[in-house]
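idk why but the lab printer keeps eating my pages so im just putting this in chat instead. protein + flavin-adenine dinucleotide:
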Amino acid sequence: MAAHYDVLIVGGGIAGLSLASALAGSCSVALVEAEQELAYHTSSRSARQLIPSYGPEVVQELTVRTLGLMAARDAQLPEPVLTPRSFMLIGTEESVRAEASGHMSAITHDRALELCPVLVPGAFSAAGLDTGSFGCNAPLLLADHRLRAEAAGADIITGARVHSAQRLGSGWEIGAGQEAFETGVLVNAAGAWADEIAVISGVEKLGLQPYRRTAAIVDVEHPLPGNSPMVAAADNTFYFRREGTEVLISPSETVPSGPEDARPRPGDIERLIVMLNQLTTLGIRGVRSAWTGLRTEAADGVPVAGFDAEAPGFYWFAGQGGYGFQTSSAMAELAAAQILAGQGAGHSAGAAHHPASRTAEALAATRWSIRR
Ligand SMILES: Cc1cc2nc3c(=O)[nH]c(=O)nc-3n(C[C@H](O)[C@H](O)[C@H](O)COP(=O)(O)OP(=O)(O)OC[C@H]3O[C@@H](n4cnc5c(N)ncnc54)[C@H](O)[C@@H]3O)c2cc1C
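predcted complex ->
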């Protein structure tokens, strides 16, 4: 017999887990993950930095709200998820100005070198600093969401790939692995596979595109100082930051991919090491580990959250791109409010008194109800 839930979430990454913890306790929730472990794909492959100045305006609002929610949660945890770590953008005057936002202030060349002494002075001519940026203990955050969701009664089922989804009365009948489920609301939090879940469900795809991005942990001759910011090139050719005595580096590539278990390509990290050994005095000696994840985006780069107006009870929670952690708590808060307020097509946030109503309004103006 099929197990029945008010809400069934497909995908056990940061999107699905944060929504499960926001919803559980208010309704019955199941989260179904294809892999044997949670957060196997992009959510275990990020750079773990939350940057208020990064991304489109809506993303920046969601990030500020997420940081507030995480800080409030940190006050209750024995170990914090957030650690202050500023973010510095370097490049030409023009490229830094183009990327800078209200959360970032211009700083002098000397100040930039003081903050990151390994930079070769000729490597950049302008810099901006976002002091409201934080490092994020992603494993701890994911574990906390799981713990909260399960403590509030959510069922988390791993190793069960959703292979079928049909409308059943006012809800959905789902097949996942060997199991069958019935649910009022089907949440599509399947990351790079979100369009595939739509197809399985007989819902029109949104044209979400996964893009590869690689990162590596490298050994260096000259470690970065403890308080050094994450440093990114304004022209998107690299970023790096301290990771203990080692350094995390990324070539910042944005290469289209299908949904897959992405792996680093030969040459990507090696080329980056040659470049960074010219632009810095890090003296990169070797690669400890390297990985690739998929950042999945809608055409306009704005995250997708809302009921599909043409498929009652089908809720999109995808397209988090390179901002899935920094927008997670605010996105989950808003999605939970919307799902609990009404379960159907074309529903709008209606969150005038909601703590994140400004963000809800911003999202309403973009894609808070899909296809309207
Ligand atoms: C190199 C890199 C650096 C990044 N750095 C940052 C950063 O510093 N800050 C930040 O905020 N973001 C960052 N990101 C982006 C962030 O990691 C993503 O936005 C986020 O992890 C996406 O989470 P998700 O839950 O949507 O997707 P995923 O983590 O991919 O989760 C989707 C899940 O759905 C499951 N699934 C798919 N199909 C099915 C099915 N049929 N049945 C059941 N389950 C299914 C998958 O197995 C997967 O576990 C980075 C990404 C990369 C690649």
